[in-house]
Amino acid sequence: EYEGDRNAEGERHGFGKARLPNGDTYEGGYENGLRSGNGTYRFKNGALYTGDYLQNKKHGKGVFFYPDGSKYAGDWVHDQRHGYGEYLYANGDTYTGEWVNNKRHGQGTYVYKDTGSKYIGAWINGIQEGPAELIHLNHRFKGTFLNGKPLGHGKFIFDIGCEQHGEYIQPVQVKEIEKEEEEDEEPELPVEPKWKASEITKLTSWSPHDESAPRKAEG
Fold first, then answer.
1. Positive or negative, the Cα torsion across 129, 132, 134, 140?
2. How many whole angstroms separate alpha carbon 101 and alpha carbon 126?
3. What is the pLDDT of residues 12-69, one digit of tens each?
4. Contact partners, residue 112, CB within 8 Å, separation at least 6
5. What are the boundaries of each domain within the chain?
6. Which intervals carry biased composition (Basic and acidic residues) (predicted)?
7. Residue 15 Ramachandran class (φ > 0 left, ψ -120 to 50 alpha, else beta)
8. Contact, 94 vs 110, CB < 8 A?
9. Distances (CA, A) of 127 to 3, 32, 131
């Protein structure tokens, strides 16, 4: 069902309201039969999008309310979260930053609602990866992340005015000799990187961009 403007060819063109066969509804701009310009699309499952369209796709700026209570407000390109935007997750966590093809990618800040901790730094394909800072209640960690875990040189900075330098080392996993009968063995748990402290200093300005390790004092 459609009520609204049409062009000379009879295509939906201008402003209109439509009810789709699947129960979704759309109210907004059309151009040559396709949703274009500003509009509001209500999904039968309770989701809602309000924002820019281009040739039937979410494109430009828009806000999407998901059925689970989460919400994304920001840039869209061809139906994908792409550009800059803020996502409020169902559990209350938030991510504000860059997106590529629906994934957190580039620079962004993720705030954990339960702990108040904050990750500020680089993301690759939705995973924390690259130089970053993890800020907790009374201390923060500055270093590099790989696959969502800190790895390599970094430092903890404590609000009392000192720092602990060191590195996160990936422990080597010792595999038991596999017996052929044991096909139903448990999946291996990933081994967490271990922190190895090297020195405690007063506050310094070292950052993961400078070099791979803190400079040693001239001897």
1. positive
2. 10
3. 999 999 999 999 999 999 999 999 999 999 999 999 999 999 999 999 999 999 999 9
4. 93, 118, 119
5. 1-83, 91-172+192-201
6. 1-14, 208-219
7. beta
8. yes
9. 45, 40, 12
Q: What is the DSSP string of 55-122?
A: TTEEEEEEEEE-TTS-EEEEEEETTEEEEEEEEE-TTS-EEEEEEETTEEEEEEEEE-TTT--EEEEE
Q: What is the CATH number of domain 1-83?
A: 2.20.110.10
Burial (CB < 10 A; 0-12, 13-18, 19+), residue 84, is: middle
Q: For residue range 54-113, what is the model confidence (pLDDT) as tens digits?
A: 999 999 999 999 999 999 999 999 999 999 999 999 999 999 999 999 999 999 999 999
The DSSP secondary structure of 199-210, one letter per residue, reads EEEE-----TTT
One of 3.40.50, 1.10.287, 2.20.110, 2.60.40 is the CATH number of 91-172+192-201, namely: 2.20.110
User: Can you tell me whether residue 45 is helix, strand or coil?
Assistant: coil
Select from 78, 130, 139, 67 the least CA-distant residue to 104.
130
